[in-house]
Write the structure tokens for this entry.
Amino acid sequence: MKTNYCSFSIVIPSFNQGQYIEETLCSLLDQKYPYLEIIVMDGGSTDNTVDIINKYNKHIKFWVSEKDSGQTDAINKGFKYCTGEWFNWLNSDDYLSKDSLWVLNDYISKQPDLNLIMGQFEYLYEDGKNELFKPKGIFPSVKNTLRYGFIKQPTTFFKLDYVHQYFPLNVELKYCMDFELWYKVFVSDNNLNCLEINDLIATYRIHGNSKTFTSNEKFVNEHLFLLSSLAASTPNSSLEKLFKKLDFAIEPISFNISNKKYSDVEFLIFDRMLKKLTPVYNKNDFSLLKHIIGNAKNNNIFLPKSSWISLVSKCPNWDAFKLYRKVRDVSGLSIYST
């Protein structure tokens, strides 16, 4: 009879990660946790991935190896097979820390009203060195969580009956599906009860084929798309205008933003846009940043201190900006000085 144990469902999206997936699977099995279901969604790997999955077949609730539309599609499909009380996905090159499910269960059993729990993680580099990384993910205010919170996806577990409302995730997203889920959770008004713990829960592997480090520009573009979707989901029409000069090929995602969180979302949008568009390298950067600064001021949005923002604000056009920058460079002043 089940007592004092919550159940976990973990989806492993996979594609041609045969050199890593065995360690991922073993990190789950070595937990020796009695109420764990493992779902592996492989995108039709052509390496030794399927052989490894078959090796652990009797420990896996469900697995399939077939062509899909990418990682997000695999997560969505795997989510449908989840029946545990708590859910997360674990990429096939990452792994859980020793006894992490037991640690999570201990916290959850003491706070049964939780519907999100986040732990800490470490990086594992190709030379075998580990580095503990403990950025804060959850702050007392939604505004600061959205602005400063670090999404530690492998360590973030959601109560299944709570997170169900935010699925499926948008399959067009290949890199920022965790941001989509994070924003959906924190901008809505659905009685979120979350906890961040200091315990080590997972290891994030850094290697030459890691998407995070090989596709930075694509990450940025997808994040801008999410910000534009957030803007389109607010009643502030001027926010949408910020993105008119950016052409996204896919339809925006609809976010159910709580009325009391509109100002938090507005701040997030301007803050993220300004960070992503500085420094200024060309006329398009200048034009877009000028446009954003104007909209922010018109809507009484606080702008963070930045020499780039100050410089662009002073200059009426691109030619003036270039001249001002040249004068500063010739005079020996840094572009970063005010």
